[in-house]
Amino acid sequence: MSTTVIRNARLLDEDVVDLLIEDGAFTAVGTGLDAPADAHEVDATDLVALPGLVDLHTHVREPGREDAETVLTGSRAAARGGFTCVHAMANTDPVADTAGVVEQVWRLGLEGGFCDVQPVGAVTVGLGGERLAELGAMADSAAGVRVFSDDGKCVSDAVLMRRALEYVKAFDGVIAQHAQEPRLTEGAQMNEGPLSGELGLTGWPAVAEEAIVARDVLLAEHVGSRLHVCHVSTRGSVEIIRWAKSRGINVTAEVTPHHLLLSDEVVRSYDPIYKVNPPLRSADDVQAVREALADGTIDVVATDHAPHPMEDKECEWSAAAFGMLGLETALSVVQQTMVDPGLLTWADVAGRMSYRPAEIGRVAGHGRPIAVGEPANLALVDPSAERVVEATDTASLSRNTPYAGLTVPGRVVATFLRGRATVLDGELQEVYA
Amino acid sequence: MTFTHLLSAADLSREDAVRILDTAEELLSVASRPIKKLPTLRGRTVVNLFFEDSTRTRISFEAAAKRLSADVINFSAKGSSVSKGESLKDTALTLQAMGADAVVVRHHHSGAPHRLAHAQWTQGAVVNAGDGTHEHPTQALLDAFTMRRHLVGGGAGPLGGKGQSLEGKNITIVGDVLHSRVARSNALLLDTLGAHVTLVAPPTLLPVGVDHWPVQTSYDLDAAMEKSDAVMMLRVQRERMNAAFFPSAREYSRRYGLDVARMNRLPDHAIVMHPGPMNRGMEINADVADSDRSVIVEQVTNGVAVRMAVLYLLLGGAAEEENE
Ligand SMILES: [Zn+2]
């Protein structure tokens, strides 16, 4: 395998160094490194080197809706966003609730070569919320599933949730809960508050999330299991998780870029590009999730990248699909909302977007520090860049970004997966080119 | 006019609203002529785009446009597999191709007229004829028009309140505010016109955040009667009790329905209104609906005049400019 030397990269917030990559691993880190004459040189002057990003929450639409996203197109979008590993949610068609489906998704990721795609297994058969899927078989499969979720739907039955939490202890799994009390959110369209009343859209109350989070942390405590809370969106959820952590309950949590940046005010436009589940919340909730990400109450940023074809967004609000793209803009949004205001350092970003998500997902070979002997998974970022987001400038098959037209800071210049450049100068690098 | 579409009652300043009411007052006299037509909108095309059945509202808009000599195209999209909204965009593009100058939209989804006006699918003026549980601004205008005729200028009727607002009037709106587009538009418009609005409903039928509205709220209908200049009863669907909004139709009617005993506690000059269609025996008693205080039939008549005024001001002004 080839050798690459990266010159003058800033290692997180620390020193400017050269990085030597041989056979997919870092073999030297230091200043003025000697490199073989045939080594590929990358100039990283003024760029920050981050460990390859890891997403705990990506929707690729394969199998089933390959018109919206495939494993390959999702992986390419991920690479452009600086990711080297993504967790593919189970709500495909067929649902990823068997060893066969998760292995298929995992293999497609490997074959694509842009990003490791770690499948999430469904908790219940067909996301039906009635019977446990064969969690052990998915754990034992080649895909080695450790994260289980019915995401898109909540495991609302308390007994089933308890059993799932208990059962996955046998293989160190975690249940990632989409916290949404179903009866309190029937027909829900947007955050319930003054604006939903004014706009005449059915409300999705914060309590519908918080009631499930409260129940689940207590269940996790009772059975001594590991719980992960997907896309925390309200101040109340933050407070419950903070309390649970202070009691020593084994709970982790994620926040999406869009809940860090946008509040429900944008719904005034009735433009379904802003329709997402859980919904965009109040400005106060946005403030709360930023603070929680800063103080570690929320462990990680996860994109909830959710591609949809345009016809599911170019329509009336209530008829539109929930979800928005996130992979290619996540780092910029985190820089804008957290790094630039001084709430997080780049080292903190590495923790929240690489080390910690890999640890929660139990993925080996990702979320490792940039150090000799570690796999060369790496993102080079230009934090001084500014760019205007364009909906068509994407590797995703879909266009449903809520940030089109916004100027955001930061740009991923290069991404390396086990030493291979998947992105250079901001451009995808074809595998066999 | 300061508005190019009429999507929400909030689009209207007090000046706009009073001008619409004054114009409606003048146009109402057309209805009493033997030839009920004015040439104002000749050559203009008004499309009635109805994604939801409402014969009453469609007929009212149709009559309004025809009395102004506009060409009227009725487009009923209901039943044409409109579960997804692609058809809203496609329909809008069709209307654009047909050269619609105004599109009157009725839709079961809140915000659909807003999408139509702002997604650049059509260039015509968009008039919201009721969208989901959001708004119904022309209903609010016809209600305000009816109130002004009875409550302002000594209740002189024709031209009695010309140029005037509803400053200081106490209006009580009763019923399913949560699901009512009429209540939303009325709360906004009546506030703009200087009236004091009280919404009366069981707590389950008031939306979260109603404390941010420019209104007072009460759970007690009896307490609101004596100070009301007008009381407006909203339609309440019996099926709401299945979703536990209230225990039974009988209990609802007892606590929040308007019967003769309650009506008799109103001041002498007060009027009783209902946007229709009524649920007699539910929110309003038949004797009340047919009483002298009831202006419900008049509301329908006034609807045509007010909608003429809206179309005239949205389209007629533009025509005059083009001719200059
Ligand atoms: Zn989810």
Write the layout of secondary structure elements.
The complex is a heterodimer of chains A (433) and B (324).
Chain A (H helix, E strand, L loop, with lengths): L2 E9 L4 E7 L2 E6 L9 E4 L4 E4 L1 E6 L12 H10 L2 E6 L10 H14 L3 E4 L15 H6 L6 E2 L9 H10 L6 E4 L12 E2 L2 H6 L3 E2 L1 H18 L3 E3 L5 H12 L4 E5 L1 H5 L21 H13 L4 E2 L28 H10 L6 H16 L16 E11 L18 E11 L2 E5 L2 E2 L5
Parallel strand pairs in A: 1-4, 1-5, 6-7, 7-8, 9-10, 10-13, 11-12, 13-14, 14-15
Antiparallel strand pairs in A: 1-2, 2-3, 5-16, 16-17, 17-18, 18-19
Helix pairs in contact in A: 1-2, 4-6, 6-7, 7-9
Chain B lengths: L13 H18 L13 E6 L4 H13 L3 E6 L9 H13 L3 E6 L4 H7 L6 E7 L5 H15 L18 E5 L6 H12 L3 E5 L15 E3 L2 H5 L4 E4 L15 H8 L3 H4 L7 E3 L12 H4 L6 H28 L1
Parallel strand pairs in B: 1-2, 1-3, 3-4, 5-6, 5-8, 6-7, 8-9
Bound molecules: zinc ion (ZN).
Structure report:
The complex is a heterodimer of chains A (about 425) and B (about 325). Chain A is of the alpha/beta class and about 425 residues long. Helix content of chain A is about 30%, strand content about 20%. Chain A has 2 domains: about 5-50 and about 375-430, Urease, subunit C, domain 1 (Roll); about 55-360, TIM Barrel (Alpha-Beta Barrel), CATH 3.20.20.140. Chain A has helices spanning about 70-80, 100-110, 135-140, 160-165, 195-200, 205-225, 235-245, 255-260, 285-295, 330-340, 345-360; strands at about 5-10, 15-20, 25-30, 40-45, 50, 55-60, 85-90, 115-120, 145-150, 175, 190, 205, 225-230, 250-255, 300, 380-390, 405-415, 420-425, 425-430. The radius of gyration of chain A is 21 Å and the shape is globular. The two termini of chain A are about 15 Å apart. The relative contact order of chain A is 0.16. Chain B has helices at about 15-30, 55-65, 85-100, 110-120, 135-150, 180-190, 220-225, 250-255, 260-265, 285-290, 295-324; strands at about 45-50, 70-75, 100-105, 125-130, 170-175, 195-200, 215-220, 230-235, 270-275. Chain B contains 11 helices and 9 strands. In chain B, helix 1 (about 15-30) crosses helix 11 (about 295-325). The radius of gyration of chain B is 19 Å and the shape is globular. In chain B, the strands form 2 sheets. Chain B has a 5-stranded parallel beta sheet with strand order 7-6-5-8-9. Chain B has a 4-stranded parallel beta sheet with strand order 2-1-3-4, sandwiched between helices. The interface between A and B is medium-sized, with 25 and 30 residues. The structure holds zinc ion.
